[in-house]
Every structure is written in C-alpha cells, then in structure tokens.
Amino acid sequence: MPSHELIAQYGALAVFLNVLGASLGLPLPVMPTLVAVGAGSAVAAHDLLSVLPQFALTLGAAVGGGLLGDLVWFQGGRRYGGRTLHAVCTLTPSRDSCISRTEGFFERWGVRLLFVARFVPGLALVAVPLCGAMAVRLRTFVWHDCAGVALWASAGLALGAAFAPQIKAMFLLASRLGWPALGIGCTALAAYALYRYCRRAVLAKAREQAGGEGRLPFSG
C-alpha cells in the first residue's frame, strides 16, 4: 500500500492525470487508481473527519480531469459531428454499434445519460461527443458531466475506503512476493491485451465477410 505521505502528495495528481487520459481515450487504470487512493487515504486517517479533506481534493481532481478531457470531445462533436463520433468509436471494442446504441440511450435519457455514462465501459467516450453533435448547451453539459464524474469517482473512492484493510493486505502480500507478483501482473495484462486484440480481429473479419451489411450485436 502506498504510504499516506505519497498519497497526500501525489494521490490527487495521479487521479487527475488518469481521469484526464481516460477521458481522452487512453486505456488507463482509472478505477483501480481511485480505489487505491481511497484505501490509502482511509488507512492513513484516524477518523472520518480527517479523511474528508483528502477525499474532497481527490474528488475535485477527478472532476477537473474528467471535465477537461470531455470538453475536447464535446467541442469536437459540436464542430465536426459524425466524423468525431466515428473517430471515437474506433477507440471502443464495438465500433459498429456504439453510435446507434448510444443514440438510443440519448433519445431515452437525454443529457442525463452523463450521470451514469462512466459506469458503463466505453459509453462516456461516445456520449460526450454525441452531446456536442446534438447541440446540447455548454452550461447544461458542464454541470451534468461534472455530476456524472463526481458520482463515479465517489464510488471508486468509497469502495477503496470500505475495503481498505483488505486492499492493504493485498499490497503487503504483493510487496513480499516481489518480482514474481510483478511478473504475474504483467502476464495478466499482456494476456488481456492479446484477448482484446484477437476479439477485435474476429469482429473485423466478421464485418468483412458480411460485406458491410447488417449489424453485429453490441458487446462491451
């Protein structure tokens, strides 16, 4: 478990950079970062009141990073419309159905979709430029987006705080194992990346065989 000094100094910065990068489309481990910072803050705190300032700082960093990244895609959707949506969909594992599925959600929920978009992998990345393409007012977008990021980040921080002892034990075990634990983690990440690559290749081959006709079912 990172020390409370490191969390106090760099936890909010790490969350800001992770959320900003993920909002721009980079495959960063945002939720694990939120959970780790939440757990570290809870372990270092003596009571609930002492952990609130750190949580507030981290939450503000998450909202700031999320809004800054989302504004890039929002303005892109407002200016370029469908081209931005297609560009964003190349970053998702379900390119063929991501626009139509998100449009269906938007027709039902409107801009309120941003409240829960980050809880669904890949949905926020498409919902944000779609809001721009649908001419949502900037002020309306900003407050809905901030609220959605705040809800999502609060869930990650609260989850880390709730399971702080267990997470601390996992970090201690990993530190004792040393290089073997690092090797296992790297192997798992490589296997996951290979799985996603093969899955996308299979979907691409299916699209080619279908000759562009029909739709593949949505998959996360």
Main traits of this protein?
220 residues; mainly alpha; 9 helices; 79% helix
Q: Briefly note the structural class of the backbone.
A: mainly alpha
Major sheet details: none
- Estimated helix fraction: over 70%
Strand content: under 5%
Q: Specify Rg, calculated over alpha carbons.
A: 19 Å
For the terminal residues, how far apart are their CA atoms?
31 Å
Shape: globular
The tally of beta strands, per DSSP, is 0
Mind sketching the topology for me?
Layout: H1 4-24, H2 30-44, H3 48-80, H4 82-89, H5 95-109, H6 123-133, H7 138-162, H8 164-177, H9 179-210
Describe it:
This protein has nine helices and no strands. It has 220 residues and is mainly α. The chain is 79% helix and 0% strand. The protein has helices at 4-24, 30-44, 48-80, 82-89, 95-109, 123-133, 138-162, 164-177, 179-210. Mean pLDDT is 79; it is low at 212-220. It has one domain.
